[in-house]
Amino acid sequence: SDKVTDTHVEMATQILRHKVLIGLADQPVKFMENVARYLDLESMQEELCVSNYLRSDTEMHNKYPSVKQDSDEFKTIAGRNQFDMKLYENARMIFDAQRA
């Protein structure tokens, strides 16, 4: 079977960087600001739009218990999904860069 490698993570990161407007569930307002800027919707009532979107979107609210990053559970999950974790960290950096 084919194994995932750092090369795959880098390829996926490049796709995210060049083809995707990143949104993070823990920063929905900042994501909506990015969407408004990307679509040149600055003249809209952005705060009202974001507020309505967040109130209507029940999928944004995580129904699962959170796992603290310093816990053994998190370390086990991260260890088993090391490439997913690398890609997630890269996506967070891209998200920050898209805000600039």
Folded structure, characterized:
The protein is mainly α. The protein is 63% helix and 0% strand. The model has no long low-confidence stretch (mean pLDDT 84).
Instruction: Specify the number of helices.
Output: 5
The major pleated sheet works out as:
none
Strand content: under 5%
Return residue spans where pLDDT drops below 50 for at least 5 consecutive residues. Answer: none
Write a compact overview of the structure shown.
With 100 residues, the protein is mostly helical. The chain is built from 5 helices and no strands.
Secondary structure topology:
Layout: H1 6-19, H2 28-38, H3 46-56, H4 72-80, H5 82-99
Helix pairs in contact: 1-5, 2-3
List its salient traits:
100 residues, 63% helix, single chain, mainly alpha
